[in-house]
Amino acid sequence: MIDGPYFVLIVLGVVGTGLVAGVFCAFSTFVMRGLAALPPAQGVAAMKAINVSALTPAFMLVFLGTAVLCAVIAVVTFVLWPDEARGELLVGSALYLFGSLGVTMAANVPRNETLAGLEAGTPRAAEYWTVYVREWTAWNHVRTVASAAATVAYALALS
After folding, report:
1. At what angle do helices 86-94 and 57-80 cross, to 10 degrees?
2. How far apart are CA 79 and CA 74, in angstroms?
């Protein structure tokens, strides 16, 4: 059984990856659908406002703090070579770091930056909006699954 400070790290990993999975799941299952149902000018304006407001210290602490925590768990796992749950811990860390943080930086953020450069209500913004919703949501599904799978992997490490 994993115990002590290492146990606490993994429990925090379960909580962090689970919280992020929940946020991403909400976007995949209803937020983006609701925004897509709006006229393009309103959808663009709303998503631009969401993207700005997402950069709050609270969300960034959960999102980036979980990434740091996952990296710490991976390093500690490599250094200490725990006899139990090594695979689950490394898989959980990789899923979050590559499937959540990596996908965010490589796929979602560039689309957000493109959207931020467009003026809501213009023909170019309306044209990009349909592409944005489709592609951003598809990549968000990847982030959702990766974060949820990381949660499961860390939870399995505790069992």
Report:
1. 140
2. 9
Count of alpha carbons within 13 angstroms of residue 53, beta-carbon side: 6
Residue 84 has pLDDT above 90, yes or no: no
Q: How confident is the model at residue 82 (pLDDT cuts 50, 70, 90)?
A: low
Across 121-148, b (16+ Cβ under 10 Å) vs e yields eeeebbebbeebbeebbebbbbbbbbbb
Q: Give the list of residues 6+ apart from residue 128 with CB closer than 8 angstroms, or none.
A: 114, 115, 118
Provide the domain count of the chain.
1
Q: Residue 132 sits in which domain range?
A: 4-158
pTM: 0.94
Give the SS3 label for residue 37.
coil
Model confidence band, residue 2 (pLDDT cutoffs 50, 70, 90)? confident
